């Protein structure tokens, strides 16, 4: 098969030189606008190129305001929006109720986290209270709870932090005077 551009099998092929690199640059496919000077090419004589007129610059233009590409629409999402349109935005009472639910969940999560990983604090607190039926009951329940948590190993992070604190406190620091 002949790859020459004049071959009848390739009538639309452009005129491409057979040399590995073109020796002359082709003319620009974009002619200069009215009143503009043409850009100088490497082979042309260098002449002074005018700056763009100030009217071409839009001071308030921001390139980030332009969209670059349309996102493809998933047909299932489009069907879902059609079948289940979004509801009305919540009013002030709805927003307040949502915020209360969120706050309640966070408080419950923090309480459970502390009950599991800081069970010794309940024991310490109950020992500091005045003796009574409630504090004795809380202390006994805290003792049992701390023993169960210790069997799971959930007290190890707290103990590691405590040991690190005590080691740093008892360390001899340069420039520190001991009482």
UniProtKB/TrEMBL annotation:
Residues 1-13 have a biased composition (Basic and acidic residues). It comes from the Bacteria. Residues 1-51, 160-179 are annotated as: Disordered. The chain crosses the membrane at residues 106-125. Keywords: Membrane, Transmembrane, Transmembrane helix. This is Uncharacterized protein. It comes from Brevundimonas subvibrioides.
């Amino acid at each position: 098969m002949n790859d020459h551009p004049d071959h009848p099998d390739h009538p639309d092929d452009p005129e491409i030189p057979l040399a590995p690199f073109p020796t002359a640059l082709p003319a620009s496919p974009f002619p200069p606008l009215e009143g503009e000077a043409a850009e100088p090419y490497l082979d042309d004589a260098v002449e002074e190129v005018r700056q763009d007129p100030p009217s071409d610059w839009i001071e308030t233009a921001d390139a980030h305001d332009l969209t670059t590409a349309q996102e493809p629409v998933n047909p299932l999402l489009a069907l879902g929006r059609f079948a289940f349109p979004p509801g009305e935005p919540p009013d002030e009472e709805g927003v307040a109720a949502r915020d209360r639910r969120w706050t309640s969940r966070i408080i419950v999560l923090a309480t459970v986290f502390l009950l599991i990983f800081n069970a010794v604090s309940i024991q310490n607190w109950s020992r500091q209270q005045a003796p009574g039926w409630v504090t004795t009951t809380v202390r006994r329940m805290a003792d049992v709870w701390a023993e169960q948590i210790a069997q799971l190993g959930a007290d190890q992070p707290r103990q590691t932090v405590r040991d690190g604190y005590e080691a740093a406190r008892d360390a001899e620091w340069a420039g520190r005077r001991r009482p």
